[in-house]
Amino acid sequence: MPERQIAPVISRLEEFEQSLPGYLGSHAKLAILLDYDGTLAPIADNPSQTKMDDELETLLHRLAKHPQIFLSVISGRGLKDVQAHVNIEGVTYAGNHGLEIEYPDGSRHDYELPADVKRNYTAMVEELRQRLEKNGDWVEDKRVSLTYHYRDTPAELKNDQMQVAIEICERHGFRANLAHEAIEAKPPVNWNKGEAALYILKNKFGNAWAEEVLVVFAGDDTTDEDAMRVLQGLGLSFRIAADAKTQTFADFRLPKQDLMTDLFKWIASVYLS
Fold it and tell me: Cα separation of 9 and 21, whole Å?
């Protein structure tokens, strides 16, 4: 069974090869699966303000064009939102924690929610907005999941409003996950970033994908742990976390988001050299 650990840390470019000698090979197929917020782009006060670093974005564009590399972004954002922010051709995008997936050819896979869950979602959004959109808080409605943001709330009010938000989400039957100054409400279905990652890999490479392709996954949040858990022992995962005591299913911890550029440099040194 997969287990959480205090993962070994990688803190500079040279340590990728030192820690993982020979893991990559230029003739091997490589699947790179990535979160967006806090992973490809630093966390911003408002989600609309996030932007990838220019060097990281350039590397990502080049890697996406390589015939041996498959690239997918699996985000908690709505599908169209994450597509607009990444905007790289040839990428498989998954939004709403994988509930909606779109392939480069425009074909889609949408997880169909039960009718009662859809009704509860509508009621939950309405109640959250009526009771909690104040003091800087706001509700990001993503059609099948939502994020309640309290980053701009006065410090003395944050905990109380956060607890009310959790209570509302759970009363409507949704799972409330803590994120960066936010609560993410996900529907009560057996589908998450881990299930989405497995579905995407099987769809691209077949049921024997684990024997066919190397996998690299990176994420920074608790929802990314679902993918790290299912990929443990089958691929290589990196958890972005400043806290050295972070317990994770990932193989390695990156203490800063900007180390993602070094991760891509390490991959590029094998596949683009």
Answer: 15
